[in-house]
């Protein structure tokens, strides 16, 4: 292979572009030209077919990413290693769910949250699989790809900054405001630290899933949207800084503080265990 072509092909930015475009393109083709025609032909109700399609689509995305970088980098795909999956799956989900739950509990004690009933009528399997897929797309590409490549190239600290800036795409969500801008940055920092500490996507992914699931579970909007259904019928009242307002409970000062504390603790542990790296670019003499 020509030296210049090789340098361009293996340049970190090129890796990120290829790493996003190839798996995502394959997913789009397989979902629209294979999965949807097949499952819609054998299952009449979309409410049943769609969750299956979305779930298989997530697997397609992971498998295509795995084999792309297996051949591209000629390495073990450690970011998808299943070695500690049970621990990171249950631990991540419980931590994400508990973080939101703690904020809800504080609001309840302050009389800013009232629950009136429980029903699963407004929460469907399709909605949950949408959360599964949305989280895997973000954590695979943001953490498993962008943070990983930038950290190896420019070091941990620059990777953290890039991770925080990437999350600013959420400023376009409904009901975003100046405080949600800050929460996006904190989210990017903490999620990056989960990946940097474990070097796998599973802890941030399952934390993300627990975080996302818990908000409509308690009757809150999720990142500004209110069309994901609810399980607990509830009412929020009080200052927007405490309740999160129309954006949802993740925009509460309580939730943002807990999220930041998790990120700081992980940074401290990563530094203590020698997991903060300079990056290959700065290791050259």
Short overview:
The protein is mainly alpha-helical. The chain folds into two domains: 1-75, no CATH class; 81-283, no CATH class.
Commentary on this structure:
There is one protein chain. The chain is mostly helical. The protein has two domains: 1-75, no CATH class; 81-283, no CATH class. It has ten helices and two strands. It has helices spanning 3-9, 12-42, 46-72, 85-109, 125-154, 156-166, 178-198, 202-217, 240-243, 253-272, and strands spanning 113-118, 232-236. A two-stranded antiparallel ribbon has the order 1-2. Helix 4 (85-109) runs antiparallel to helix 10 and helix 5 (125-154) packs across helix 7 (178-198). The longest helix is centred in the N-terminal third of the chain and has 31 residues, at 12-42. It is globular and about 65 Å long. The two termini are 26 Å apart.
Main β sheet profile = 2 strands, antiparallel
Through-space gap between termini: 26 Å
Query: What are the secondary-structure elements, in order, as H or E?
Result: HHHHEHHHHEHH
Mean pLDDT: 93
- The number of helices is 10
Spatial shape: globular
Helix coverage percent: 55-70%
List the domain count as a whole number. Answer: 2
Task: Identify low-pLDDT runs.
Answer: none
The class by helix and strand makeup works out as mainly alpha
Topology, number of strands: 2
Looking across the biggest beta sheet, what order are the strands in? 1-2
Rg on CA atoms, Å? 20 Å
Strand content: under 5%
